[in-house]
Amino acid sequence: MSKQLSLRGFASALLLTATSALAFADAPKVGQPAPTFSATDSNGKTVSLADFKGKIVVLEWTNDGCPFVQHYYTRGNMQALQKEFTAKGVVWLSVISSAAGGQGYADGARANQLTQTRGAAPTAVLLDPKGQLGHRYDAKTTPDMFVIDADGKLVYAGAIDSIASSDPDDIAKAQPYVKVALEATLAGKPVTTALTQSYGCSIKY
After folding, report:
1. Do 70 and 1 fall into the same domain?
2. Is-cis flag, bond preceding 176, omega within 30?
3. What is residue 89's three-state secondary structure?
4. Does residue 93 contact residue 123 with C-beta atoms inside 8 Å?
5. In whole angstroms, how large is the CA radius of gyration of the chain?
6. C or N: which end of the chain has fewer Cβ atoms within 10 Å?
7. Is residue 162 classed as helix, strand or coil in its secondary structure?
8. How far apart are CA 58 and CA 117, in angstroms?
């Protein structure tokens, strides 16, 4: 009996290792083509990455109940980034991957209400309650940020800035990773800090 249990444990460990390795292999890689996707936005429209060929695209994972998201929205910092870069032709897609019943879940009406009441200015809000888009990008936290260049290449992935804090006062002290990445990409320059560790609340898949 103990031998059988041992073999089962060994087999389980092998399966877990194989699954982890596969997930790592499938994770999006900076410098490589960004994973394609198709999702429904808050107005019921189907949005695909292919729709924005030739444009720089930002993916921002969000959850209005997360304090790390709130600290970027409370004083208008996220909204300012959205407005600054969409005015320069960048496509900004906010993504809600919270499952139905989970913290931050939103249907189209609630997502539009949040956009209006917060004064947010994304190009669109994508609804991902089954987590398909989130898992495709291996998004883990809110916020989790990705920048895709005009050639469809992933040029930045990770945290919005360098200080893992929910205090809005820390924003001004932090290195603004996403802002710097977007400025470099718009200027046709390489992103010097292209991969960082995201921080925030775990996505409620």
Report:
1. no
2. no
3. coil
4. yes
5. 18
6. N
7. coil
8. 22
Q: By the 8 A CB rule, do 153 and 27 touch?
A: no
Number of helices (H), then strands (E), in the chain: 6, 9
**Residues 18 and 74 placed together within one structural domain of the fold:** no
Domain housing 21: 1-28
Is residue 179 classed as helix, strand or coil in its secondary structure?
A: helix
Tell me the average pLDDT across 94-106.
97
Q: If pLDDT is split at 50, 70 and 90, which confidence band does 18 have? A: very low
Q: pTM for the whole thing?
A: 0.87
CB 138 within 8 A of CB 23: yes
**Whether 22 and 56 share a structural domain:** no
Domains: count for the chain:
2
Which among 153, 128, 158 has a CA at the least distance from the CA of 140? 158
Q: How far apart are the C-alpha atoms of 178 and 196, rounded to whole Å?
A: 10
User: How many of the other CB atoms lie within 10 Å of CB of 78?
Assistant: 27
In this structure, the answer to whether residues 9 and 53 fall within a common structural domain is no
Span 151-197, pLDDT tens digits: 999 999 999 999 999 999 999 999 999 999 999 999 999 999 999 99
Instruction: Name the percent of the chain in helix, strand, coil, to the closest 5.
Output: 40, 20, 45
Report the C-alpha gap between 172 and 160 in whole angstroms.
12
Q: Which residue has the tokens 């087999």?
A: 11
Residue 137 has which token pair? Answer: 């990008």
